[in-house]
Amino acid sequence: MFEGRKCLVVGSGVSGQGAVSLLGRMGAEIVLFDGGDGIALEELEGRVPSGVRARCFVGQLPEEVLGQIDVAVLSPGVPVDSPLVTELVRRGVRVIGEIELGFLAERGRVAAVTGTNGKTTTTTLVGEIMKAHLGRDRVFVVGNIGDPYTMEVAKSGPDTVTVGEISSFQLETVESFRPGVSAILNITPDHLNRHHTMEAYVEAKERIARRQGPEDICVLNYENAYTRDFGGRCPARVVYFSSARELAEGYFLRGEEICLARDGQVTALLNIHRDMRLVGMCNVENVMAAIAIATGMGVPMDTILGTVREFRAVEHRIEYVATKKGVDYYNDSKGTNPDAAIQGIRAMSRPTVLIGGGYDKESEFDEWIESFDGKVEWLVLIGQTREKIARCAREHGFERIRMADSYEECLRLCTQLARPGDAVLLSPACASWGMFPNYETRGRIFKEYVNGLEE
Is the full-model pTM beyond 0.90? Predict the structure, then answer.
C-alpha cells in the first residue's frame, strides 16, 4: 500500500511518531517534518522510533523534498488550511491523518466515538465493557485518548476490537475510515478558532459515519438538534438515546431508570442512582450511549450492566477529589468549553465556588453564566479569557467575581471563599493552553493542591 512511496509525516508528537512507526513497517520512504520553532533537528531525529529510517526537517521543508512527496500524514494539531497543507493539495499530494492511516492497517472490528462533550468517559466505558467481554489483551482504546491508533493497530487481528475516541481534528482527514459502530454524542460550538464556522465543525463530526452502510450502526443523541438532524441523513442504521423523553425505539430515561424500547417492548435496565457511580445528567447520557455502542458490538446486556455498575468517573471529568474542612473539591478540568462546563455545574448539589477561564477558543459564555442559576456563589477567573468572562457575567447580573493573576493565587482564593457545606469546582469552560500544556496538568496541580490542604 505504501511500500516504496515517499510519505511525509507532519508533526512529531505522539501521533506523528506513531505514523512514522507504522509507515516504517509498511516499507514507506519517510520524511518527518516539524514546523515548530522550539525544536532542534537533533531533537526531531531523536523522536524517530527505533529501527525506522526517516529524513528529518525542522522549520521549513525544502522545495526539492516537497516535490517528491506522494502521501502526507497530518498530526491532529496541523490545520488542513495551513499554507503547507494547501500547497500539498495544490500539487495533488494525497493528504490523510493518523486515524485514516491506522484504519488502513486495521484487521479487527472498530467502534468509534465523537462529540463535543462526553467522548472520553463514553470511550473509556465502552473499552472496559469490551475488555470484560473479550479479555483485556484483545481490546485497544485509542485515538484522542490513550495511545495513538497507529501505535496499537499492528496488534489487531480478526478477534480484536479497537475503540477510538475521535476528535473533529482527526475526522477532517479520514477517507475510508468505517467503524462498525459509530457514535456522535452531541454537537455544540467548540474549536471555532480551528474550523471557523459551525457548519464546518458539524461536517467534521458527521464524517465519522460517512463511509458506514445500512449494516453498520450509528448511535445519536435525540436531544441534540445537530445529531437528531443527522439521523435523517445518516447512511448507517441509527440508534437514538434520550435523557428528556421516551422513545418508541432506543434508550431513554424514565424517572430514575434507563430503559430500552425495542419492537414495542420496554425494558428497565438500571437505576441511575442505585446502579451508577457517575454523577450528573451528562453521565446518564454517556452511559446510555455506551450501552447502545456495546450492544451494537454484540456484548451481552448482563456484561454491559455489570461493568457500568463498577465504573468510576474518568480522571478530570467531574472527579471528586477530597473533602477538606467541610468543603467538597471536584476536578472537572476536562470541561474545556462552555457546554461541558455547564454539565459540571449541573452535577453540583452544594453552593459552589467555581474556577473559570483559560485559552480563548472564540467561545461565547452566556449560556454557561445563565446555568449558574443561584448555585454558583463565587466565580474565580484566570487566564486569557478572564476579562471576557467577567464582562459576560456582569451583563447577566452576576457580580461575585474575583480575579487571580496565577493558578496558585486562584486556588488560595477558593479555599478562602468556600465555607463548610460548599463545593469548589474546577470547570474552566476554556482550554488550558497558555498556562498549562494540557488540561491533565491543570487538573493534576489542582488535585495536588487540594490533597495538600489540612483536614
Answer: no
CA distance 353 to 343: 15
The DSSP secondary-structure symbol of 246 reads -
Q: Which amino acid is at 21?
A: S
Residue with cell 455545574: 345
> Among the listed ranges 130-139, 253-262, 433-442, which one has the minimum average pLDDT value?
433-442
CB atoms within 10 A of CB 427: 28
Would the pLDDT of 189 be above 90?
no
What's the CA gap between 104 and 150, in Å, rounded?
A: 10
| Half-sphere exposure (Cβ direction) of 99: Cα atoms closer than 13 Å | 32
Write the CB contacts of 358 (distance below 8 Å, at least 6 apart in sequence).
Answer: 336, 382, 383, 384, 385, 428, 429, 430, 431, 432, 433, 434, 435, 442
Distance CA 65, CA 69 (A): 7
Asked if pLDDT for residue 222 goes beyond 80, the answer is: yes
Residue 277 pLDDT greater than 90, yes or no: no
Q: Which amino acid is at 8?
A: L
Angle at CA of residue 268, ends 127 and 215, nearest 5°: 50
Looking at per-residue pLDDT, the higher value among 198 and 103 belongs to 103
Is the CB of residue 407 less than 8 Å from the CB of residue 441? no
What is the number of helices (H) and of strands (E) in the chain?
18, 20
Only one residue has cell 454491559, namely: 304
The answer, yes or no, to whether residue 158 has pLDDT greater than 70, is yes
Residue 365 and residue 392 in contact, taking contact as beta carbons nearer than 8 Å: yes
Identify whether the C-beta of residue 123 lies closer than 8 Å to the C-beta of residue 165.
yes
Q: Is 139 in contact with 131 (CB distance < 8 Å)?
A: yes
Cα(80)–Cα(403) distance, rounded to whole angstroms?
A: 37
Is the four-CA dihedral 99, 103, 105, 107 of positive or negative sign? positive
pLDDT band at 6 (very low <50, low <70, confident <90, very high): very high
Exposed/middle/buried for 118, CB within 10 Å: 0-12, 13-18, 19+?
A: buried
Among 175, 199, 169, 172, smallest CA distance to 187 is for 199
Angstrom distance (rounded) from CA 153 to CA 155:
5
pLDDT in tens, 303-315: 999 999 999 877 8
E strand or H helix that includes residue 333: none
DSSP element (H, E) containing 401: strand 401-403
E strand or H helix at 251 = strand 250-254
- Closest C-alpha among 25, 28, 20, 23 to residue 3: 28
